[in-house]
Specification:
Beta-Lactamase; 5-stranded mixed β-sheet; 434 residues; elongated; binds magnesium ion; 5-stranded antiparallel β-sheet; 20% strand; alpha+beta; binds adenosine-5'-diphosphate
């Protein structure tokens, strides 16, 4: 604007000077006329040239201004936050894509209207914060709730500013806001996990406290049973006490195993031998009895496996006990042990297959959740523990899809623990073993 005035002034001044020179030339005697006409032409030429140059400059500036205004608009449109601007009269003059997405309302129904005429009742608090900002009452990090046009109530994080004042009056106001739904969800989940962790620690310490007196009770009852040699009903009662204390002990062991965050102690061993040891231990347990047949197929087994042997024993015991329970301790359980190579990684697979009823589809998604059990006396920790041990070794535990009756669980581990990769094969990803 100023520049345009400058251009016009220069043109007027040039034209004025030229006019004066022409008048002089006309009034002066002819001999002088040439002398006075020359400056008139020069002045006019100077004024015209200057005018042309200024006009080019002015057009350049105008293009530059338009360019930077477009750039500012693009930036405002691109920010993921919602942005709403008011002009000095309090009318909505800016509304970006973020505002449309967060509030579920397009700019059409609101831009140009006064902030007091906000069309959605559930968003009036946002409108009030904008009106406040225009009056100088701004917020730097506030929060409020708005109802989207689809009826969803969402939490907003908001900050508002007043645009610079001219003679004490604001030239506008702006609000920038974000949808905090996801942030709040993550915060709540973390809080819940913290609470669960606290409960877990408490439960683990109670379990520890129970274990010692329980061992004394069980030991004493066992001695009494030996000494008294009770028969009949009394004998049955003593046997019941022993059986139930065993069960309680198992539960506490499992629970402590589950809550303990022990890192695997990795060493190399022969996996087939370890499996045989576990099977022997199971055969010696009363329930397994003679009606259960345990078969091991280790023809394609690797000679060595790097893992925490004690943890693996626990896994196989859990899987074999589950299989035995599913078959009512009658029938055949096969354990297949073999090494496979996939994506350049050598894996050792243990598949425990039973002839029980299998796992119904609706239970499958919950199998590895802690405390999921369908057995009246179950703890629901056996598979959860086995699953965690697999993950701690960079492996996996899965229920295989079996066409026939029965269940087959595949426990898979990298044959070589992380950091021991050979033959330039890539190490298995994410193995916490170390
Ligand atoms: N071999 C299997 N056949 C059928 N169902 C199984 C088998 N193994 C586990 N399950 C199911 O998974 C549930 C959870 O097993 P687990 O975590 O070992 O806990 P628990 O044995 O204490 O119930 C069992 O209650 C059972 O419903
Ligand atoms: Mg179990």
């Amino acid at each position: 604007m100023l520049m345009q005035l400058g251009v016009t002034a220069r043109l007027l001044m040039g034209a004025g000077l030229a006019l004066a020179a022409i008048l002089l030339a006309l009034l002066a005697p002819p001999a002088w006329a040439v002398l006075t006409a020359l400056p008139a032409v020069a002045i006019l030429a100077w004024a015209l040239h200057g005018h042309h140059r200024d006009e080019v400059l002015w057009r350049d500036r105008e293009a530059e201004l338009k360019d930077s205004a477009r750039h500012a608009d693009e930036m405002i449109a691109a920010i993921p936050s919602g942005l709403i601007g008011l002009d000095r009269q309090g009318r909505v003059c800016r509304w970006n894509e973020g505002a449309t997405r967060i509030l579920g309302m397009g700019r059409g129904g609101i831009v140009g209207r006064h902030v007091r005429e906000w069309p959605v009742a559930g968003q009036r608090e946002l409108a009030a914060r904008l009106a406040d900002a225009l009056a100088g009452r701004t917020i730097s990090r506030g929060s409020l709730e708005v109802t989207r046009t689809d009826g969803h109530i969402i939490p907003l994080g908001i900050s508002t500013s007043q645009l610079c004042c001219e003679n004490g009056t604001a030239s506008g106001a702006v609000a920038v806001f974000q949808d905090l739904t996801e942030v709040n969800r993550i915060r709540d989940r973390m809080k819940q996990q913290e609470r669960l962790a606290a409960v877990g620690t408490l439960a683990a310490s109670i379990a520890h406290e129970i274990r010692n007196p329980l061992a004394s009770i069980a030991g004493s009852v066992e001695m009494l049973a030996g000494e008294l040699d009770l028969q009949g009903e009394l004998g049955e009662l003593l046997a019941l006490i022993l059986k139930e204390s065993d069960r309680l002990n198992d539960l506490i062991d499992n629970f402590l195993e589950f809550t303990r965050d022990r890192r695997p102690q990795v060493a190399a061993f022969a996996p087939a031998r370890l499996l045989e040891e576990v099977m022997t231990a199971l055969r010696q347990r009363g329930e397994a009895g003679s009606a259960l047949e345990l078969a091991l197929d280790a023809a394609a087994a690797p000679a060595r496996l790097e893992a925490d042997a004690a943890m693996l024993k626990q896994v196989f015991l859990n899987l074999l006990i589950n299989a035995g329970q599913a078959m009512d301790w009658r029938g055949r359980i096969t354990v297949t042990l073999r090494e496979v190579e996939e994506a350049g990684v050598r894996w050792t697979d243990f598949v425990v297959r039973d002839g029980g009823p299998g796992v119904p589809p609706e239970e499958r998604p919950h199998l590895f959740e802690p405390f999921f059990t369908t057995r009246a006396r179950g703890t629901g920790l056996g598979l959860a523990i086995a699953h965690r041990i697999a993950e701690q070794h960079g492996g996996s535990l899965e229920l295989l899809a079996e066409p026939d009756a029965g269940a087959a669980f595949r426990f898979r581990l990298p044959t070589l623990a992380a950091g021991h990769c050979v033959n330039e094969s890539p190490c298995p990803a994410e193995s916490p073993v170390g």
